[in-house]
Amino acid sequence: MIGIYGGTFNPVHYGHLRTALEVRELFELDELRLIPCRLPPHRDQPDVSGEMRYEMLQIAVANTTGLHVDRRELDREGPSYMVDTLKSLREENSGAPLLLFIGADAFAGLERWYQWRRLFDYAHIVVMTRPGYARQPLPDFLQRRLAEDRARLRAQSAGCLFFQAVTLLDISATQIRHLIATGANPQFLLPEAVLAFIQQHQLYQAPY
Ligand code: ATP
Question: 172 alpha carbon to ligand 1 midpoint, in Å?
Answer without folding.
Answer: 6
